[in-house]
Each structure stands twice: as C-alpha cells, then as structure tokens.
Design brief:
Chain lengths: 384, 676, 277
Amino acid sequence: MSEAADIGEAAVSENPFAARRLGHRRREKGVSLVLRLAAYFILGCAFYIFIDIIAKGAPVVFKAAPPFVNTEFFTKSPETLMTFETADGVFHKMNFPEYSRFKEKNPGLEIVEEHSHAFSGGGIFGPLVGTALLTGICIVVAFFIGLTTAIYLNEYSSKGRFMDAIRLAIMNLAGVPSVVYGLFGLGLFCLVAPVITTDPKADALFTLRILFTDRYLSFQGWGTCMLAGGFTLAVMILPVIITACEESLKAIPSGFREASLALGATKWQTIAKSVIPYAFPGMLTASVLGITRVAGETAPIMFTAALSHKDKLPWEAADSLGGFFAQSVQAMPYHIYTVAARIPQSEYTKPMQYGSVFVFLLLVMGFAGLSVFLRIHYRKKIKW
Amino acid sequence: MNESDPTVAESAPTNAAPSFRGRGFRIFGLGLQDAIRYFFGGNASLAIILVLLICFFLGREGILFFPSHLRGLQDYRSAGQEFVDCLGEQIDTHTAFYSSANIAYFAEVNESSREEDEILRVVRGLLANTEAACRKSWHLLKRKLDEVSRMDAALADLEAADPARADLVAKREARQAEIEALRATLRTEAEAALAGKEVWKLGGDGRGLSKEDRERIREAVLFQAGPDAKEEHPWLAEVKKRSREKKASSSEGLVGFKETLKEIQDAIRPMRSLHGDLRKLAMENRAAINSYVTAPARRAAMLEGAAKAQDPAEKARFQAEADKVVLVAPDLVAMNAPFYGAVPKHGELSVALLGEMRKLQAALPEDGGNERAKEALRRSETLFKRFEGAVERNRGKVGQWRHDRRVPALSSLTSFVFGKQWITNSSWNDFYGLLPLFSGSFLIATIALVVSVPFSVAAAIYVNQLAPRREQNFVKPAIEFIGAIPSVVLGFFGIVVFGEALRAVSQIEWLSWVPGFPMTERLTILNAGLLLAFMSAPTIFTLVEDALENVPAAFAENSLAMGASKLQTVFRVIVPTAMSGVIAAILLGFGRIIGETMVVLLVAGNKIKIPDFSEGIGVIAQPAHTMTGIIAQELPEVDSGSLHWRALFIVGMVLFVIALAVNYAAQQVLKRFHKI
Amino acid sequence: MMSDPESQQTLSPNRKGAEAPAVPSDIVIEVDDVHFHYLKGRDILRGVSMEIRRGEVTAFIGPSGCGKTTLLRCFNRMNDLIPTAGISKGEIRILGTDIHHPRVDVIELRKHVGMVFQKYNPFPKSIYENVAYGLRIQGIRDRGKLDEVVEESLRFAGLWEEVKDRLDASGLGLSGGQQQRLCIARTIAVRPKVILMDEPCSALDPISTATVEELITRLKKEFTIVIVTHNMQQATRISDRTAFFYLGELIEMDRTTTIFNNPSKKQTEDYISGRFG
C-alpha cells in the first residue's frame, strides 16, 4: 500500500494505470449493493402492504358480474350487519333494516346463532361524503390564507423582524403533532369561536350585542361540526400550502415582474396579471398535495368534526346553509379507525375493513399520484 | 420600491410635463396599493397569531390544571388515602413475589406431565377448530338433540296417561333417524376437516408429538366432535389420568415448596385485613371531602332552580334541597384519627411480616428443575428485594404521615411530570403521571428511529449518489409516494396483518435469540415502532436526500480528480459535508414519530404502565401507551373543563413543547450546515 | 477502443515494443487525432493531436467554448462523469499507455494525473485532512508518514509558514489564494506525474494570482503541468509551450515565445492581438 505514495519516484511501469486493489473494487460493489437493497427494502415493504390491501379489498369493491362494481358499497352508509341462522339451518347475512323487515315478515321464526356486527354492513357513502366536505372546506380556507401569505412573503415583504417572525411561526407550525392541532381546534373552533345568535349560551367566553338588532355575537364555539374540522385541518395544512405556493412564486423569473412594472403597472396589477397566472400550476399542485395530506388525517377531526355513526347524509339532515355546516360528519379515516379498533372483530367485519381501506388508499394515493403528475407535467411544459 | 406611491410623486405639476401624481382613492393617507399590501400582510401574520393561539389554548388549560391537581393531591392526603396506599404498596409487592414463586411451583409440577398436557392442549384446540369447521351440522345436530330430549321429557310426563301420543313417538323416531344421519354427516365433515392442514395449525402445531400420538389424537377428536359425545374417548381419559397422576406424584416431592407458598400467602393476611378496613374509611373520608368541595356549586344550582321555578311548591322543594346541602367542613382530625391509631399496629405487623417472609424466602428452593421454574425463581428473588424495600420504606412513611401537612405547590408539577401512574375514572383516586405515557412514546420513537435511520439514510445515499438516473427517477418518487399513505391505514395494517405476522415470526425457534422473542402479544411496542419506522422512512429519506443534493458538485469532482473511488468520495467527502443535514433530518423524523397518533393508538397495545425494563431490550415485546394515543383515546370521553380533560391538554402541551424543541434543535444544526 | 482479449494480455510489451523508438521519453501525454463529443454525433473536439513534454508548463488558450477545458478533462477522464460524453475517435496516451484501454483503471489514472479546478474547493475538513485526503483514500494510516507528506506538500505549496499553527482549522477559513494553494498542495500530496489546471487563477485577486503563478513555476521542476487559461499574459508569464484552440480544433502549438511573437497562423495572431475572443 505504501508504494502508492512513492509513485513519483517509481519507474514507469508497464501499465502504470492498472487497477491495483481488486478486492477493494469488490467491496465497493458490495457496499453499493447493500445501500441499494436498503432502498428496495423500503419499497418492498410498501409493495407488500399495497398488495395485501388490494388483494383483500378489491374483491369487496369489485365483482365479476356487471356493473363490476359493488354499487351498494358506494351508495350506502355504514350499518349494522346481522348474521343468523334460521331453524332450518339456513344462514342469513343482512343489514339491520332488512333484518327488521325480515323479522316482521316472518313472525314466529326461530332464529339461532344470531350475531350483530356494528358498522360491518352497508357501504361507505357517508364517510366518503364527509371526507370530501371536510377536505373541501379545508382546502378553500387553507388555500386562501396560504396563497395570500405566500404572496406577501414573496412579493411584498422586505427582510425584517416581522418576516423572521412569520417564517419562524410557519416553521414551527409545520412540526406540531396533528393531535395537538386536534386539541387546538377543539379549544378554539368548537368551544370559543364566535357565532351570531339570538340566544347565546351561558357558558360562552363572552357575548356582544350587535347594535340595533336582537342578535348577539357570542363566543361560544361552533360545537363539533364539519366547519370546525375543516378549519382545524386548514390550520394544520397551512405551512405546507404556504411553502408550496411560495416556491411556485419564487420560480417565476423576476424579469416578469420588472417588465410589468416597467410598463407602468401597479404592484397589484403586476402580481395579478404577470405572476399568479404563471405560478398557478404550481399552486394547483400544492393544493392537491394538501388534499392528500389532509384526507388521511384522523387525529385533528376526531374531537372536532367526526362521528362514527350517522343515519342521514349531511344534506338530508340540514334545513339551512348554516345548519349544513354546523353538523358533524362521518369521515373515511375515522370510519377506518372505528372498524379497525373500536368494534369487536369477526370474519364479517373484514370485508368492510378491507373495502374501506382499499377505497381510501386508492383515493389518497390517487391524489398523491396526481400531484406528482402535475408537478412533472408543468415542469416539462413551462420553460423560461 | 413603491412605484405608484402617491407621496413620492408630490412634485408640482406643470401644464407641459406629464403628471406623475398617483391616481386613485386614498383613505387616511392609504392608497389602494397600500390597502392590498396590508391585506396580504394581515393574512401572513395569521401564522404568528396561530402559534400564539395554540400556546394560549394549551397554556390556559395548563394554568387551570395545576391548581386543581394540587387540590386533588391535598385531598388525597387529607382523606388518608395516601396512608392506605402505603400499605397497598407493601401488599402489591408481596403479591408480585408470591405469584412469581407460584409460577415456579407450577412449572415444576407440570414439568412431569408435559407430554400429556401437550396432547390435551392439542386436542382441545383441534376440537374447537373442527367444531368451527363443521359449525352448521354441529348446531343442527345440537338442536335436534335438544328437541329429542324435550320430546323425551314430554313423553315421560304423559307416558301412562295418553296412549294417543303415538304420533309423538313416531315423530321422535323420525328425529332420531335424522340425528343418526346428521351424526354421519358430521363425522365425514370432521374427518375432512381433520385431513386438511388448516385445522392442525394451532399454536405449536403438536410438532413435538409422535406419529402414533397424532393418529390417536385424530381418532379421539373424531370421537368427541359431536355435541352429544357423552363419555370421553378412553385413550383421552387415560392420558388425562396419567397427567393427573404424574402431577400428583411430582407434587409429592414438592410438598415443602407448596407448604412454603401457603405460608407466604398466610403471612400477609393480617396486613391485608388492616389495609381493607382502613381503605373503607379512607374512601368514606374522600367522599365527604368531595361532597364538601362541590357543595357550594350544588347549593347554588338548587337556589337558581328555586329562583326560576314558577310553582311555589316546586320553589319550596328546591329551597329545602338547597338548605340540605351541608356547607360545614368535614372534621379532618376526627376522620383521620383511626389512621394515627393504626400506626403502631402497622409497625408491628410490618416487622413481623418482614421477619416471617425472610424465613420463608430462604425456605424456597434454590434452583428450579426446568427453565421456566428457574426463570420464575430468579425473578422472584428480585421481586423479594423489591418487597423488602417497599415494606421498609412504607413503614417509615406511615410513621411520619400527617394528614394536615400541606402538599407543596411544586409537587403539583412534579407529580405530573414524574408520576408513575396514569389512572383515571377510578373510584379510589385519579393519578395523572406522565411517565408511563412518556416512556411509551419515547421507546416507540427510539425503536422507530433505530430501524428507520439506517434504511432511509442508506437509501438516500444510494438514490442520490450511486443510482443511475433512470433508477433515480423511479425510486425517489416511489419512496416519497410512501409518505402519502395515511397513518390510519398503516395502523389498520398493523392491527390486522402485521401484528399477527410479527408474533408468528417471533415464534420461529432459531430467532429466539432476538430480545423479546417469542412474543405473546400482538400489539406491542415493537409492532408500533416498526410501523412508525416505515412511516418515517420517506420523511428522513427526503430530507437526507435534499441535504446530499445540496452538497456542491465541486466537492465530488475534486475528490474524484484526486483518484478517489465513487464510494470513497461519498463516504469521506459528501456524507460528512451533509452531516448536519442528516442529523437535522433525523431530529425532524423523531419529531414526526413522537407526534404520530393513529398508528400508536391502534397498534401499541394501549396499556398504561411503565414498560418493565428489567427484561432489557426485551421490553419491546410489551404493550404500552403513548402521549398522543392517550389524548386521542380519552379526550372524546371526558367532560370539558374537568381535571382529566385539562390533564390531557397538558399532555398535548408537552407534545407541543417537544415538537418546538426538536424543530429548534434541527434549525440550529442546519444553521451550522449553511455556514460551511 | 480495443477490447480484444488477446491485445489486453499483451498490452504493455507490445505497446512499449512498438512505440519505444517513436516516443522519446520526455513526452508524457500524446494526443492522437482525438474527436470528442458530449452528445453522440456532435463532436466538440475535432482531430486534435499534440504532445506534452515532461517538466514543462503547457498552456491551452482560446476563446470560450473552443474545447480546451474539454481536452484537459479528457486527460484524467473526468468526462467519464457525463454519461453521454465520450471519445469518438483517436486516442490519448499518457506515459505511453492508452488511457481508454480496458485494463486502465480510471482511479489509478487520476492518482497519476491530478487536477486543480477553477473554483478553489477545499473539502469542509481541517487543513491537515485536506492535504492528507489523497493518501488516506489510498489506505495510508501511518500518522508519521502522513505528517511528513502533509508538511512537505504544504511547504512546497508555500503555505506551510502561513498555516503550520492551525493545521486543525477548517480549510474553508483561509483566504481565496490560500485555499487555491491548499488545493494544489492537496493535489501534489499524492505525487502525480501530471497536474492539470483549469483556470486556477480566474477566481483570485491579482496578488493571490501572483503567488499561485509563482508556485506553478516552482512546480514544473517536479511535475508536468497543463494549464487552461483565459489570460494571455499569464500564459506568457508561466508557460513554456502554448496551444491555441479554436472551434474544437488545435490551430497551433509551439513554444510560447513563438506563439506570441511570431505565430504561423492568422487566427492565432488575430486572437492574441485581441481581435476576437
């Protein structure tokens, strides 16, 4: 080995550049292989999880005969599943409403081996609707605040204490555990947020009478409702949206702005006409990414919006717009939590579990895929 | 900067020159552009407001929690519960010691009949599985049998009276025939089931059994499969008898051991009865104190009811109720007198107990005859030490206990942070101690990091430095894609698939050297840790990959130009340069993991107890609870504003502080990174 | 490039036997009709042939994009890092060996053919570790040997007196000129035969440039140096021979005095007199 240092003095060998330590090279290959295996091990684990869920979930969602999709699974809300045997040894499996009708129709029927499986029958329509509503509210709120914040940070602000404080706040918000957001949402939106009402609650933080009316602005909270859940999720996702929006704004060359300003446009005209339109694809990607993150969260909506059982769909239960947003909803992640851990397990709960997880995973991964696709698509398309 | 700022263009316009004066409306000297600017600025400052609001909402509960927690602690002392729990600890440590010794005893006794017990166990399992396989026929047969027996009873009643019952007899015979047929079906079904492998897949599989034994087991199971199998299969009966006999004969040799065990149990009796008496008293005391504490509120409620009531009778009733509420403070001295009275007796009992127990412990066998017994005896030794310590310590504590000593204000905090118990909704006393939750969270996060970091860092190095571009373009998004898997899905996977799989793996014999294996539980620290490792891998991967990406390409070029190989370049130049980025990534990953809720809630086992570290690394096979999990689990079920509710908010605050600290540390590390 | 196993077996004797008379021992690098591309089908270098002699400083000059840096990076095969790039025709022989021969290990080659870059780039390690890096990657752990080589190299680079008290300080704390000299010290620590320099002074102030230039003239006693420069005064100051490149072709190569005083080609004259470039 030490001769390597003496090359300078060594005479010109026959092939001075011949490989020296062959074992060395083999070791390099080995180490490289180990690193590579680590990467593929992670992917392998993911693959295993996906395969397991697809293999057991797809049969619930699809079927062999037309229309090939289990429509009941997508159009009904979760119900209690009853399994029982009649005296003649015939096995029955039906949802609770059908079961009551069946019993009414056949009075005096001897039923043996009767079991009820909560949340295992019906479908996942209610949770899907709830998740869509929560995600929708969240994205609207978060996107509005996130976009304006990003514009301020990137277009208006100059360096200073205020900027540093905002950046520090955003950075810290990004690290807060989701369950803490849940606590925060419960404390702020459910228990303290202001409502306008004629009949304020006694336990409101404080109430203000609105002038010339008999209404009060009462800080009594919105209660457990989809609005509270959506806002909580919006707060949680805010750092992600801000960062993504800011990045897409940063990607706009400053020449665009300068050119616009040089033509006599005002600052706002410049931003509205020559910055936002070009940054829009990036922001779109950001919001899709936001949907991915938000749709999968359980902890923040657990205390603020979700409930496991609800007979009516949101639009059936509400009589006014305010009432619509003021009701709690079922949500996919919470539904999965319920069927996975809060009900007694049996073979009849499995289809519901795997079906829900399969559909949910497909949805979330679909959105994740979409965000990746959009990012690549626009990156290819836009060149400046 | 402000191109159209009107104040700038305040120069006097002339007719010839164009006016640079700004147009548009102004309010309070603010132009439209300023208004827009402030609108955006206002939205941006929301981020700061949110952080402050989070601090406020968590902090408010904290400020309210500690005084009421202190009050609870004081009540716990005033009621004498603290005194009683001193005795309780002595008894609990004794019980732990006794049960461990007991396990050793039964391990010895059962050792002799292990083969027979194994056979019986397999038979039991097989029977259950076979029954499940032929469930339908089994139930049908059972019903038919019931019917027949009912008919028999009816026939017996009517026997002499009514000869016209011939139809019933015929019916009965028909049923009897059906039963025979069903029996035959059942037998074929059972045979079919037993032929399949599925049914034999029990814990242990009966692998240690000989072929003849297996054959005989099959026969015995078939014999007993029906619901009407009256007598036991003779071979089975014989096995049972043999097992009993062996046990009896081996316990003969262990008479001394058994005797000692019995004496150990007897030794604690007096202490137990003292504890029971005092416990009852303490509970009454606590109830009295609680009712005194809540009295003003109850009285106020009644008075309010009286004020609101329209009906005079109703009003009077409320008033009477209100007057009934006792507002007199309970006489703590009198209430606690029995405890002071019990001190000398307790002292005597403790001394006697300790002396007795030392003798008895010495009488226990030195060494067990088999592995399990040895293990249990070893354990009982440490447990005895713990017992001794508890007796001594609590004797002192009891002697010095004063019901009216003030609980120091600080202990409201310390008993939360260092409290070893988290007990809520208890009829005795609620304890809010963070340690069981914190240790669970911390252990799980540690395991997750230990597993995740090597994989994700290695993967990041490979993808960023070594992989060909095409592979890079595939692997990188794929791993980032994993980050989008919702945690509740992973938790579901852990509960339904991974837990069982992990337990099965842990029971493979040649893996028994792994600490904690074989595992008896499905939902454990290890399970949660591994899932979180998987979950945090994309986070750490992405951050590390970024850090590597940010290393200037010139470093690699320089190193390569010196004749370094690719790997030498990576490990000697690029990774060290990116090191602070890697450390920051690990820190942020830790923050992510410790704040993760759903996976731990579903998979960690939710047992609120400090994991038993005496098993070393084997502790990972135990279930645990976590800070995030406890909030998610308990918060929906408690009244808002209660002490318990506030305690959960404080746990949230601890999480928040940890998150901030981790973030801060990561930023500091990164700052150093940017300096170079 | 040959991959015939038979010729592999007999590479060295053959080559030596065949070319020993043709190649005088003071020729270190021979470039023989080299065509080079970054993307297949688009040659950046077209038919470059030259000889570089031992113990001389050879300067490459020419306008931007003329291929001088590309050729320099061919000498230690740094261009291998670009996946699509490669030599389309011709060969480069260093010390009589075709550097693209399959038996040539690129890592060994780079140990013999060191390189100093335009932007000085010490590793974020201590000064000592920077210089010792080349030895460490060769597996040398003997502290005494390392100390000796580090001191020798730093002395040679004229940096020893300035840094001997702070060898453990970060190399990034030095001034620009010092950092570049540290990089040169790092390169000479492994005792290469040839040192390639890619505009080593372009990022330095005039005073630092002077120090580095002075160092280069000292270096040529021990090493063969090829330097790419934009600065024609620099070329006249330090080089013995100069090669002028234009649009991927070697226009002219001769003694530096000849090139600058009496160039044989019109393009060369135009360039050095500042009419283009």
